[in-house]
Amino acid sequence: MSLGLGIVLFAIGAVLAFALNLAVDWINLQMVGYILMAAGAVVIILGIILMARRRSSVSTSRTAVDPATGERVTRNETSRPDDTTTI
Predict the structure, then answer these.
(1) pLDDT digits (tens, 9 = 90+) for 31-82
(2) Positive/negative CA dihedral, 27, 21, 41, 8
(3) Could you list the residue range(s) of the whole structural domain that residue 35 is in?
(4) CA–CA gap between residue 25 and residue 42 (Å, rounded)
(5) Strand, helix or coil for residue 26
């Protein structure tokens, strides 16, 4: 969602800054375009950072022998840094 919003902001800003040749007395459309392009770049970078952070995970696998039965027991744990629960 944030990547799409960043791309849309950047595209609208580029159209305002480079493609639109319209003079309005009360606003500078070229400056608004540059501001939208900068905002779009910031949103894209934040979206990439948040996606990379969300996808990182820690996985632990332990194997032990049960002393009572002699069976091998394997225990798998997976957790994410932003998630406090352990599966």
Answers:
(1) 999 999 999 999 999 999 888 876 656 677 778 887 888 788 777 777 666 5
(2) positive
(3) 26-56
(4) 29
(5) coil
Tell me how many domains the chain contains. 1
Task: List Cβ neighbours of 46 (8 Å cut-off, separation of 6 or more).
Answer: 2
DSSP 58: E
Give a yes or no: residue 30 inside a domain.
yes
Residue 33 within a domain: yes
DSSP designation for 81: T
Tell me how far apart the alpha carbons of residues 53 and 39 are, in angstroms, rounded to a whole number: 21
Does some domain include residue 49? yes
Q: Is residue 40 part of a domain?
A: yes
38: Cβ–Cβ under 8 A, 6 or more apart, which residues?
13
C-alpha R_g of the chain: 25
What are the backbone angles phi and psi of residue 24, rounded to the nearest 5°? -120, 135
pLDDT for residue 58: 67
